[in-house]
Write a structure and sequence with these properties.
The structure is a single chain. Helices cover 73% and strands 4% of the residues. It is mainly alpha-helical. Strand 2 and strand 3 form a beta hairpin. The protein has a single domain (3-283), classed as ABC transporter involved in vitamin B12 uptake, BtuC. The radius of gyration is 19 Å and the shape is globular. It has 12 helices and 4 strands. The chain has a two-stranded antiparallel ribbon with strand order 1-4. A two-stranded antiparallel sheet has the order 2-3. The protein starts with a helix and ends in a 14-residue tail after the last helix. Helix 1 packs across helix 10 (223-236) and helix 2 crosses helix 10.
Length: 297
């Protein structure tokens, strides 16, 4: 393999890994507080992509207005998802929440299938993300450069919220103990709603970049990226925000570079994520940056 091809594949791997990591943050935030795997999280990618498409097609909004509007709408949907599917089961057994999450995922997919239809729609890629630049004989689509930069910026913004604001302090308190947090006068339901909002907006940002990278949108487009992001969260240490991003980069690098170095294994690239997941669960169940977690009442 020439150095040009290697650097080309490396950039693609970093771009893909940052997408996985961005979506994985939402999984890890919700799990950190509720100990819940929100299986409907991946479908938020699909929702954001459709909102962006229809805002661009049915209105005069340019992409720099329709994209933020899609992200905001997805954040609101995340709050509604918590309100309808999870809050009524807050004191129910953990398995009830899990079943509710699976049901919410199927509901969102099939609602989109009924309302919009199953025919894939092309996602319009803005010209600013469609340009190609040449750097040291390597042709790079600018989207592959913007994606990790946007991911890092959003990660830093989220870390600031979590560790430097009162809302973030409340989130960290709720992740340790619900009852004690309530006794301190904190509205736990409001804290959880904010967690869903932030996680959903990050999923929406990831979904828009995913749709630009693979410009075809359908009601089931969020299933596989959501599953990969969940694996990334587990690999990095579910419950740890930075670990989720690290796990995403590991998956992205592994998938792309294995195919680049061993083309014969290209058809098995998706299996790499599951192999990594099995190895992590066998040898380090808490993930790379995870810590032992005790169940909350």
């Amino acid at each position: 393999m020439t150095s040009t091809i290697f650097f080309q594949q490396l950039i693609n791997a970093i771009s893909l890994g940052s997408l996985y990591g961005l979506v994985a943050i939402g999984y890890t935030m919700v799990y950190g507080i509720l100990r819940l795997i929100n299986f409907a999280h991946g479908d938020l990618l699909m929702f954001a992509a459709y909102v962006a498409i229809y805002m661009g097609a049915l209105t005069v909004f340019p992409w720099y207005l329709s994209f933020p509007a899609a992200i905001l709408a997805t954040g609101i949907l995340g709050i509604l998802l918590d309100r309808a599917a999870y809050r009524p089961l807050r004191d129910a057994p953990r398995i009830s929440l899990l079943i509710s999450a699976i049901g919410a995922s199927f509901l969102m997919q099939n609602l989109a299938l009924v309302i919009i239809g199953g025919v894939p729609k092309a996602f319009p890629r803005p010209e600013v993300f469609d340009r190609v630049i040449t750097l040291f004989d390597v042709r790079i689509q600018v989207l592959a450069i913007y994606t990790p930069i946007i991911t890092i910026i959003l990660l830093l913004g989220l870390l600031f919220i979590v560790y430097r604001t009162k809302v973030g302090k409340a989130m960290r308190a709720a992740s340790k103990d619900f009852e004690t947090t309530r006794l301190m006068g904190i509205n736990v339901n409001a804290v959880i709603a904010m967690t869903f909002f932030l996680g959903s907006t990050l999923a929406a940002a990831g979904g828009l970049m995913w749709a630009m990278r693979f410009p075809q949108v359908n009601p089931f487009m969020g299933v596989f990226p959501g599953l990969k992001a969940f694996i990334a969260a587990v690999v990095g240490g579910i419950g740890n925000i930075v670990g989720a991003v690290i796990g995403g980069f590991i998956l992205g690098l592994g998938e792309i570079l294995i195919v680049a170095f061993v083309p014969q294994l290209a058809q098995y690239r998706d299996a790499f994520a599951f192999v990594i997941l099995i190895l992590v669960l066998l040898f380090r169940p808490t993930g790379i940056m995870g810590e032992p977690i005790t169940d909350k009442s």
